[in-house]
């Protein structure tokens, strides 16, 4: 079976399930080539899953996927065609790198596709000009507006002239003007490359009208396909939105019927929400600029604007979450701060992310909120029962919020926000991502609250048809309110056909007024001079397995990001120095300053002679003498003394008479190591005393001491532990910090979504890993330099052996420790798990089991096993050996070999555990 | 009392969230079971399997007796005979920690009363073992020589003997110490990260905003996280002590476990407050993590739970007196090993609680800004 020449892609009975939920259910579809195709349907119906299967970003579970003439389940084919496919995942600029500038982002993608510098430069030039981003080439992606970020995403997708362009909800959360311009841009690109197919997922039905061919999806199935006209004719609907609702199975349509908004009775009270010259700045950036409005009781007030235009910031100021930089916000006629708790009980708030506790069930969420608002138990019970009825939640009561479909979750979110019957609701984009029917149902609830219960509603939205339902709306852009008024009045004022047109006209005017610094209008001009340069044949010169350029793409990017994150960088260098200072100075196994007290029952010259040795010792410090036995016990217990000596009453007499007698010593055994050491000291002193005693009494020296024992402390004559601890701490920190930074760097990509670039571009797993590892090896070596300087300069530890050997050892070691972090990151999916896991899995073996305090050969049990499987065990002899024993390569060959093996094996394991597609 | 009710209900939510995070639950279980067990088994604090080599130049009955003296498992591995020229190589590559040299004519010189010298080379880089091992070796040598002389001539009985008893841990067994200290280290590491991560997670999921607009005060939010955290970890500590330490490892605990758990709760109050404070300083999870390392590593390493605190530099000792981890270690040792009662440890309880209160205050000061800074 080969796919038809006419089709760019073909799906045969494709199913995809996450746990026991089907994202796609036996979907079969032929995607015609050279067309502009849209997948329509609400969130969570399988659009994104389908697109990422087409782009090769997700593993096929069952069924066949053919794209560009080959089977996408074959890795070989995926590698061959991935340079002809461009994929832009859902979410504003999810595959972009916010710390990188516009041109750096595009250059990164260019490198991934093996482009040389010259080619990258003209492509960056061309793409930024044609998208109007040229004036902002050096701006960091994080500082771009939603619309601009979307265009940058497109630039990155188009950098390699793809045959198939896959865009997942590219315009969600973007203002209408940017949205319109985005589609114009796509049109122009298609004019130039007629053979290019574009597949798009969208939740905006109005947008779908412009496409050649539509695929309507619901519940993981395709419910209809055809041109927009065909769909509308088939259902007899006038708009696509209505057509879509008509296409849904009957039971999903329940509660339909068109929405009627009764007129609002005029309010007699004063305004409930007032904003007066409300302004908020974050540093130099003004998020909200002089915003004014006043809202009456029972009014539904809509807030429109693109992502990042200041809607959320304004709402946060109204709820008192965020203090205003200047200006005033009044709720119920009082300044927010002053109101405190009593105002909060009158306000219900629903933030953008449906802030539910997703691990609680529906009932637990409702109970939890009722309790926090101190509803009396009887009232809470009645209220919750009423809400469950009103919001039709009965079927889901014992499900956790995370398992609910988006529409239900949103209903629950609203139920939770009004559990205390607030007089005012502040809703931040409550309907984004929810399907049209659920949205209508939601609005029915809002209208009921407003008209029948006099609840004032302040709502922000992206949807024009929702905006049209508000009593009044405010249009916002770049922190300022462009216009306020009834929707119909605004349309009239601009003499526009629709509210969307009116909004666009306001936006254009505002941009004009700002001097057009948005670059939007440069687009038209730039589009013309797109030169007819020969497109480089994609894939022709790409090495399939390994390309240094692709690897360096990651190295360069990671380095740039590190340089721009002063906290991570600062920690890596200064944090290390701090830990080195504290640990090397603090971990000391020199046992001294030991406190002791004497219980001398005898108190004769003989007993004092016995104690002389102890009192003169530099290891011991005497505390006030003991008077009785219980005092000895008490002071040992409290930790006041570590050693108690008891001299029996007849000591002096017995010594004189030569009667054998025994002195008692009690050692605090709380810390075994210290106890053992004290025992050693005591025995040596006792021995000395016996020799002295015998000598004094005239015995020959040889009788008292037949042989002398000379203990030589090799490598460290004074037996100062700093000489060992400084090189050991160096080894300890060189595993802890590089491993954690490395693990975080990889998991960050997973968590933030940019890992998709690994899945859908020609970069291979080994290039990805090595490319990311290089900068961390560099950081590790910088750490090493800092630690080395501290050891030699601050702690004055002499470096006796070969510096070169130490440097080479450190390099191998850091390669192994970053590999260790890499390996741990392949199990972790969140940054916190990576961080915590790496910390716990390196701290314990490093500190306890790798020979830092006790030689590995002396460890027993699991500790010994863990020690031998840990790279630090093999670096420690190098570090300590070079510093204190003056060793070089020849003496430590085995350790160098082991470290090299560790480095290679750890990278290989990470390579094997890293997936090249999403599961 | 609405405030207590809020704290209680917010806390139950924390416990539910924790129970749903399987990775965290797994790590907590690992930390309080396997990690504690493996540390206890390590024998890292005693002389165990130390490697020793003997150069027997004398090859006499006395030197043989000395060699026999070191066949003393588990302290030493059976001594190996080596040649004089190999000494420096074998010490350099760390094959042997101790090398004993019995010189030529040693026995003859001893019998002749010439006081010959035995040389013991100790690799001083093996910090824990070197010191203890050297004194064991000294003891063994003295005893063996005395035994030898007792056979050959009449030697005097020792006139003064030293009777050393080690209180609280008669055999100075490592596991008695490391098991409990392992628990203590884990408490510090876990409590800070759990409470800190709980705050950051709420912030990342947007639920912190949600809470802050409800009639709930930052104090209640913070206290709820503290009690929930303390509840989970105290149970883990209790189980670890009774199941792992007493049960599996068979270590007798001298003092009152309930009193110790009271101390744990007080310490957890402090550690959780620090976690919340760090979370109010950090903006993101990675930043929290890095701050956490800077705080928790020194707190653990220098607390006296690994190496004796008396031997730290004076200035550092004073600084560490401000760290509750030091007091925690100190009262844990006092209660569990030495059977100290409340009358002895209350001042340390008080210090820990006061420092905890200080951090809670600092965290609350910053709490409101949490929301402002996430944007």
Any overview of this molecule?
The complex is a heterodimer of chains A (about 900) and B (about 375). Chain A is about 50% helix and about 15% strand. With about 900 residues, chain A is of the alpha/beta class. In chain A, strand 7, helix 6 and strand 8 form a beta-alpha-beta unit. The longest helix of chain A has about 30 residues, at about 720-750. In chain B, helix 4 (about 60-70) links the parallel strand 1 (about 50-55) and strand 2. Chain B has helices at about 1-20, 20-30, 35-40, 60-70, 85-90, 105-110, 125-150, 175-205, 205-210, 220-250, 255-280, 285-300, 315-320, 325-335, 340-375, and strands at about 50-55, 80, 100, 115-125, 160-165. The longest helix of chain B has about 30 residues, at about 340-375. In chain B, strands 2-1-3-4 form a four-stranded mixed beta sheet, with helices on one face. Chain B has two domains: about 1-45 and about 175-375, no CATH class; about 50-150, 3-Layer(aba) Sandwich (abc type-2 transporter like fold). The interface between A and B is large, with 151 and 139 residues.
Features:
heterodimer, A: 919 residues, alpha/beta, Rossmann fold, six-stranded mixed sheet, 35 helices, 17% strand, B: 375 residues, abc type-2 transporter like fold, four-stranded mixed sheet
List the helices and strands and how they pair.
The complex is a heterodimer of chains A (919) and B (375).
Chain A: E1 7-18, E2 21-32, E3 36-40, H1 47-55, E4 62-67, E5 70-71, H2 75-81, E6 85-88, H3 102-112, H4 117-131, H5 146-158, E7 164-168, H6 176-192, E8 197-202, H7 205-208, E9 213-218, E10 221-226, H8 228-235, H9 240-247, E11 273-282, E12 285-295, E13 300-304, H10 311-318, E14 326-331, E15 334-335, H11 336-339, H12 341-344, E16 347-350, H13 362-372, H14 377-390, H15 406-417, E17 424-428, H16 436-453, E18 456-461, H17 464-467, E19 472-477, E20 480-485, H18 487-493, H19 499-513, H20 522-528, H21 548-563, H22 566-586, E21 594-600, H23 605-615, E22 620-622, H24 629-638, E23 643-647, H25 651-657, E24 661-668, H26 672-696, H27 701-704, E25 708-714, H28 722-752, H29 756-760, H30 765-794, H31 803-825, H32 831-849, H33 861-868, H34 872-885, H35 893-913
Parallel strand pairs in A: 3-8, 3-9, 6-7, 7-8, 13-18, 13-19, 16-17, 17-18, 21-22, 21-23
Antiparallel strand pairs in A: 1-2, 1-4, 4-5, 9-10, 11-12, 11-14, 14-15, 19-20, 23-24
Chain B: H1 2-20, H2 22-32, H3 34-41, E1 52-56, H4 61-69, E2 80-81, H5 87-92, E3 98-102, H6 106-111, E4 117-123, H7 127-152, E5 160-167, H8 174-204, H9 207-212, H10 218-248, H11 257-281, H12 285-301, H13 314-321, H14 324-337, H15 342-373
Parallel strand pairs in B: 1-2, 1-3
Antiparallel strand pairs in B: 3-4
Helix pairs in contact in B: 1-10, 2-3, 2-8, 3-8, 4-7, 8-10, 8-11, 8-12, 8-14, 10-11, 11-12, 11-14, 11-15, 14-15
């Amino acid at each position: 079976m080969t796919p038809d020449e006419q089709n760019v892609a073909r799906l045969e009975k494709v199913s995809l399930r996450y746990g026991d939920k089907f994202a796609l259910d036996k979907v079969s579809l032929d995607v015609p080539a050279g067309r502009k195709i849209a997948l329509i349907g609400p969130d969570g119906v399988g659009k994104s899953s389908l697109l990422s299967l087409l782009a090769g970003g997700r593993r096929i579970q069952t069924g066949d996927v053919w794209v560009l003439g080959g089977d996408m389940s074959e890795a070989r084919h995926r590698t061959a065609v991935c340079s002809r496919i461009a994929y832009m995942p859902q979410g504003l600029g999810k595959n972009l790198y916010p710390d990188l500038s516009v041109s750096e982002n595009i250059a990164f993608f260019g490198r991934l596709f093996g482009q040389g510098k010259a080619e990258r430069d003209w492509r960056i030039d061309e793409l930024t000009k044609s998208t109007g981003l040229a004036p902002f080439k050096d701006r960091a992606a994080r500082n771009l507006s939603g619309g601009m970020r979307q265009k940058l995403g497109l630039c990155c997708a188009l950098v390699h002239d793809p045959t198939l362009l896959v865009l997942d909800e590219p315009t969600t959360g973007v203002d209408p003007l940017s949205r319109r311009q985005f589609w114009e841009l796509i049109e122009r690109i298609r004019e130039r490359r007629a053979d290019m197919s574009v597949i798009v997922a969208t939740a905006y039905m109005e947008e779908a009208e412009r496409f050649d061919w539509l695929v309507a999806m619901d519940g993981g199935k395709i419910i209809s396909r055809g041109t927009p006209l065909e769909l509308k004719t088939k259902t007899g609907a006038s708009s696509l939105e209505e057509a879509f609702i008509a296409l849904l199975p009957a039971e999903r349509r329940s509660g339909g019927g068109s929405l009627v908004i009764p007129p609002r009775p005029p309010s007699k009270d004063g305004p409930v929400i007032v904003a007066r010259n409300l302004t908020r700045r974050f540093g130099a950036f003004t998020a909200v600029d002089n915003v004014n409005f006043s809202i009456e009781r029972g009014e539904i007030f809509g807030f429109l604007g693109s992502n990042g235009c200041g809607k959320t910031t304004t709402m946060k100021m109204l709820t008192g979450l965020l203090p205003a930089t200047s200006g005033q916000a009044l709720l119920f006629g009082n300044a927010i701060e002053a109101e405190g708790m009593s105002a909060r009980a009158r306000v219900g708030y629903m933030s953008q992310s449906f802030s539910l506790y997703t691990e609680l069930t529906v009932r637990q969420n409702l109970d939890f909120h009722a309790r926090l608002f101190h509803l009396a138990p009887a009232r809470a019970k009645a209220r919750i029962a009423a809400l469950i009825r009103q919001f039709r939640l009965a079927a889901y009561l014992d499900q956790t919020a995370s398992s609910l479909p988006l529409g239900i979750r949103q209903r629950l979110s609203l139920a939770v926000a009004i559990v205390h019957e607030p007089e005012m609701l502040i809703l931040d984009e409550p309907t984004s991502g929810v399907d049209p029917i659920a949205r209508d149902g939601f609005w029915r609830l809002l209208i009921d609250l407003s008209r029948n219960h006099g609840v004032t509603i302040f709502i922000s939205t992206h949807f024009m048809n929702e905006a049209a339902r508000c009593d009044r709306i405010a249009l916002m852009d770049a922190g300022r309110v462009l216009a306020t008024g009834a929707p119909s009045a605004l349309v009239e004022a601009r003499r526009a056909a629709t509210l969307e047109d009116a909004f666009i006209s306001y936006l254009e005017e505002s941009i004009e007024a700002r001097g057009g610094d948005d670059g939007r209008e440069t687009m038209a001009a730039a589009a013309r001079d797109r030169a007819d340069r020969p497109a480089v044949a994609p894939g022709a010169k790409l090495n399939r397995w390994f390309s240094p350029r692709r690897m360096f793409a990651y190295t360069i990017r990671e380095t740039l990001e590190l340089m721009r994150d002063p906290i991570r960088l600062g920690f890596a260098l200064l944090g290390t120095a701090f830990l080195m200072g504290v640990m090397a100075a603090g971990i000391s196994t020199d046992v001294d300053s030991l406190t002791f007290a004497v219980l001398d029952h005898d108190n004769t010259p003989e007993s004092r002679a016995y104690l002389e040795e102890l009192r003169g010792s530099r290891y011991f410090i005497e505390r006030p003498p003991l008077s009785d036995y219980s005092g000895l016990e008490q002071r040992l217990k409290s930790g006041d003394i570590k050693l108690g000596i008891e001299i029996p009453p007849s000591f002096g007499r017995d010594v004189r008479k030569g009667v054998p007698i025994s002195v008692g010593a009690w050692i605090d055994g709380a810390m075994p190591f210290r106890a053992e050491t004290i025992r050693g000291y005591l025995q040596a002193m006792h021995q000395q005393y016996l020799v002295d005693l015998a000598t004094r009494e005239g015995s020959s020296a040889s009788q008292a001491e037949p042989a002398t024992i000379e203990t030589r402390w090799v490598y460290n004559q004074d037996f100062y532990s700093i000489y060992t601890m400084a090189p050991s701490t160096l080894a300890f920190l060189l595993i802890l910090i590089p491993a954690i930074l490395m693990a975080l760097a990889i998991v960050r990509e997973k968590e933030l979504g940019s890992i998709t670039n690994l899945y859908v571009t020609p970069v291979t797993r080994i290039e990805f890993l090595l490319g990311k590892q290089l900068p961390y090896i560099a950081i590790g070596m910088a750490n090493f330099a800092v630690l080395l300087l501290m050891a030699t300069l601050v702690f004055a530890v002499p470096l006796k052996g070969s510096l070169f050997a130490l440097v080479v050892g450190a390099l191998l070691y850091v390669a192994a420790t970053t590999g260790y972090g890499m390996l741990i990151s392949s199990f972790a999916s969140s940054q916190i798990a990576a961080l915590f896991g790496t910390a716990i899995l390196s701290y314990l073996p490093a500190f306890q089991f790798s020979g830092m305090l006790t030689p590995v050969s002396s460890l027993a049990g699991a500790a010994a096993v863990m020690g031998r499987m840990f790279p630090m065990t093999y670096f420690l002899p190098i570090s300590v050996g070079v510093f204190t024993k003056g060793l070089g390569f020849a003496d430590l060959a085995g350790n160098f070999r082991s470290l090299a093996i560790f480095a290679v094996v750890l990278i290989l394991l990470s390579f094997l555990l890293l997936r090249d597609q999403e599961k | 009392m609405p405030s207590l009710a809020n704290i209680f209900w917010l806390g139950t939510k924390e416990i539910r969230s924790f129970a749903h995070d399987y990775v965290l639950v797994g790590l907590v279980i690992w930390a309080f079971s396997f990690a504690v067990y493996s540390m206890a088994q390590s024998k890292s604090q005693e002389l165990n399997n130390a490697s020793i080599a003997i150069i027997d130049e004398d090859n006499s009955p006395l030197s043989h007796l000395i060699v026999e003296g070191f066949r003393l498992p588990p302290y030493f591995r059976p001594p190996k005979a080596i040649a004089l020229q190999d000494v420096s190589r074998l010490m350099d590559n760390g094959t042997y920690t101790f090398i004993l040299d019995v010189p030529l004519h040693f026995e003859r010189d001893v019998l002749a009363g010439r006081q010959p010298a035995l040389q013991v080379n100790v690799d001083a880089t093996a910090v824990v073992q070197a010191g203890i091992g050297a004194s064991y070796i000294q003891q063994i040598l003295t005893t063996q020589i005395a035994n030898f002389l007792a056979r050959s001539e009449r030697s005097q009985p020792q006139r003064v003997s030293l009777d050393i008893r080690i209180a609280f841990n008669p055999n100075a067994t490592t596991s008695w110490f490391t098991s409990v200290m392992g628990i203590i280290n884990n408490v510090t590491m876990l409590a800070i990260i759990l409470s800190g991560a709980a705050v950051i997670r709420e912030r990342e999921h947007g639920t912190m905003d949600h809470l802050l607009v409800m009639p709930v005060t930052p104090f209640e939010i913070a206290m709820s996280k503290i009690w929930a955290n303390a509840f989970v970890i105290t149970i883990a500590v209790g189980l670890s002590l009774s199941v792992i330490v007493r049960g599996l490892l068979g270590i007798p605990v001298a003092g009152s476990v309930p009193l110790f758990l009271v101390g744990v709760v007080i310490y957890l109050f402090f550690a959780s407050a620090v976690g919340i404070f760090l979370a109010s300083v950090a903006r993101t999870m990675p930043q929290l993590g890095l701050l956490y390392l800077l705080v928790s590593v020194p707190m653990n390493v220098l607390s006296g739970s690994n190496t004796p605190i008396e031997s730290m530099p004076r200035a550092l000792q004073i600084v560490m007196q401000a760290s509750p981890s030091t007091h925690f270690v100190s009262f844990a040792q006092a209660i569990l090993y030495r059977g100290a009662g409340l009358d002895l440890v209350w001042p340390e309880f008080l210090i820990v609680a006061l420092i905890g209160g200080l951090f809670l205050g600092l965290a609350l000061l910053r709490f409101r800004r949490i929301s402002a800074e996430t944007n």
